[in-house]
Amino acid sequence: QVQLVESGGGLVQAGGSLRLSCSPSRRTFLIGSLYTVEWYRQAPGKQRELVASITRGGSANYTEFVKGRFTISRDSAKNTVYLQMNSLKPEDTAVYYCKTYGLNWGQGTQVTVSS
């Protein structure tokens, strides 16, 4: 079973940046080639929420609380979807997951933003 593997999380001060990566566990699975890829996050005690998405055509959408700060992109050559996060705030602290149609949730990557 193919899984999406998230990486790139860490501890950063408020105002800092991180770039998250999302790649399939099997190279033959071409991420984003057929279906939209989404980034979600889940903070402690809260429900998982959608952060950003990118369609197979490359159109990106963002939720209001990350617009202007986060950028989702796809590198077909590297078979990876990225989430560039700038101007991070303590409220961005969460486990971040990527998701696409037909695949189960991965382990996620922890992002912690200190004030």
What does this structure look like?
There is one protein chain. The chain is an all-beta fold. It is 0% helix and 48% strand. The protein has strands at residues 4-7, 10-13, 18-24, 37-42, 49-54, 60-62, 70-75, 80-85, 94-100, 109-114. A six-stranded mixed beta sheet has the order 2-10-9-4-5-6, with no helix packed on it. A hairpin with a 6-residue loop joins strand 4 and strand 5 (49-54). The mean pLDDT is 95.
Helix and strand run: EEEEEEEEEE
**Structural class, from secondary structure content?**
mainly beta
CA-atom Rg in angstroms:
13 Å
- Strand line-up across the major sheet: 2-10-9-4-5-6
- Main sheet makeup: 6 strands, mixed
Shape: globular
What is the strand content?
A: over 45%
What oligomeric state best describes the polypeptide chains here?
single chain
Share of helix, binned: under 10%
List the helices and strands and how they pair.
Elements: E1 4-7, E2 10-13, E3 18-24, E4 37-42, E5 49-54, E6 60-62, E7 70-75, E8 80-85, E9 94-100, E10 109-114
Parallel strand pairs: 2-10
Antiparallel strand pairs: 1-3, 3-8, 4-5, 4-9, 5-6, 7-8, 9-10
Provide a compact summary of the structure.
This protein is mostly beta strands and 115 residues long. Helices cover 0% and strands 48% of the residues. The mean pLDDT is 95.
Defining key terms:
4-stranded antiparallel sheet; single chain; 115 residues
